[in-house]
Specification:
16 helices; alpha/beta; four-stranded antiparallel sheet; 35% helix; 451 residues; nine-stranded mixed sheet
């Protein structure tokens, strides 16, 4: 590993899919604030919707998501009925029937929901919201449990994009993380989706898994390239067994060390860029003609709870247990426990769990962090001026950035701070300079290791 990168590899820093980050949300006593923020939305502005389905038909031991095993169909259907009620409750709290530009189904595994139940939920969305023609409608999928006939149903729902959890094709790695998923299973799913007219395909790959090596991930990338997904997210496995109990089943002695993790990530990234993919931000790759590449070139790439996105809606409304809404004035996270979430809905309350009202300084720092995470460069004086504060507001942070500059991980030209290609693996650490909430030592286990 690069010696400069090695100094920061074990620091615990957020992924900055929001700012302030989720650990700094506050418990909500009721849904009053949530209702006020929804009612205050601009009725003329389009919004995005995120729907969370916290069920999977199989458990992966590396997963740290809020997920339940869908051993029986009845609880999944009951969840769908509660979600349909929540859609109506939220719509009633809005100032108008809002237009929708993006719909993202995440989980868990959304297709763990029976197809007829998903159809009812899509019908509810279209009844309560104006889903625009041409809106992106994306589903996260588990190829192991995806039946080829599901593809036609998703197409009927208007799906335009599918995101497949692939992680790694090596059989030993798959066995160790309890995700047996041969290449042929993934190919069958991709072929079914494309045959149904769902042409935009995303893959999630991971490095840092148990028994994973530079060679196994290189072979996985080589196999991935034969399927030519439009976008690839290359995530580092975050081993947090104190938070995710199923991760305790992973033998820690089989996990690669920091240097090996770094080499795995770099080898995979090099293979992807050699194959023509454009590197985006910290961990995404896309084919040259993809809209995400265009957004990067034009400085309009965004970052939200799903990662990098071209979605430019100012409002993201989260639906389902544990989902998070990003509203102009606040963040709101739904109740995480599905029983309590459902009971709140049955009582006619928005299932508000935690909230974070945004201050002017939060918005200012969020803008700086987002531009760094997306573009690897930011003019802090320009952002400060546009937010109505003094251009020299971030002088202390720029002074602290001098260490990164000296190590060749960043450059500075006046008020413009840029992360170099060499410094890209430490991007989250550089962004953390502008995080007013993060403890100075950056060692809390609530966050994943930086590299």
């Amino acid at each position: 590993m690069d010696k400069a990168i090695a100094r920061y590899a074990e620091l615990r820093v957020p992924r900055y899919t929001s700012y302030p980050t989720a650990p700094y949300f506050d418990p909500a006593a009721d849904d009053a604030g949530h209702r006020g923020w929804l009612d205050g939305l601009d009725p003329a502005a389009p919004v995005s919707l995120y729907l969370h389905v916290p069920f999977c038909k199989k458990v992966c031991w590396y997963c740290a998501c809020n997920m339940k095993l869908a051993a029986r169909e009845a609880p999944v259907r009951a969840y769908g009925k509660a979600l349909e009620k929540e859609i109506a409750l939220v719509a009633k709290a809005l100032p108008a029937r809002l237009a929708v530009s993006h719909v993202h189904w995440g989980g868990g595994t959304p297709t763990a929901m029976p197809m007829d139940a998903l159809a009812e939920l899509m019908g509810a969305l279209r009844f309560h919201f104006e889903v625009r023609p041409g809106a992106e409608i994306a589903f996260e999928l588990d190829p192991r449990t995806f039946k080829p006939e599901f593809a036609a149903h998703l197409a009927e729902f208007g799906a335009t994009r599918a995101s497949l959890g692939v992680q790694e094709f090596d059989a030993k790695v798959q066995e160790t993380v309890n995700r047996i998923q041969p290449f042929e299973v993934v190919k069958r799913t991709v072929d079914a989706l494309r045959d149904a007219g769902i042409g935009a395909i995303n893959f999630d790959l991971m490095y840092g898994l148990p028994h994973q090596t530079r060679e196994t991930i290189a072979r996985s990338v080589e196999q991935t390239l034969t399927l030519r997904p439009d976008r690839i997210a290359l995530f580092g496995y975050a081993h947090v067994p104190w938070m995710a109990k199923n991760q305790r089943l992973i033998p820690e002695e089989a996990l690669p060390g920091a240097s090996e993790r770094f080499d795995q990530a770099e080898r995979a990234a090099e293979a992807l860029t050699d194959a023509g993919y454009i590197r985006i931000g910290l961990d995404h790759f896309a084919l040259p003609g993809d809209e995400m590449v265009k957004a990067l070139a034009e400085g309009r790439l965004k970052r939200n709870f799903q990662g990098y996105t071209v979605d430019d809606a100012e409002t993201l409304i989260g639906l389902g247990a544990t989902s998070i809404s990003a509203l102009p004035e606040s963040y709101v996270q739904n109740i995480a426990e599905t029983g309590a979430w459902s009971r709140a809905i049955d009582a006619g309350r928005l299932p508000t769990g935690r909230t974070r009202a945004l201050t002017a300084e939060d918005r200012l720092r969020r803008a700086v962090i987002e531009r760094l995470m997306c573009d690897l460069t930011v003019d802090v004086a320009d952002i400060a001026t546009r937010h109505g504060v003094a251009p020299e507001t971030f002088a202390p942070e720029l002074d602290r950035a001098s260490a990164f500059v000296a190590e060749g991980l960043a450059t500075r030209d006046g008020s413009v701070l840029s992360v170099t290609e060499r410094g890209r693996p430490a991007l989250r650490v550089v962004a953390a300079l502008f995080d007013a909430y993060l403890p100075a030592q950056q060692t809390e286990k609530r966050h994943a290791a930086a590299v």
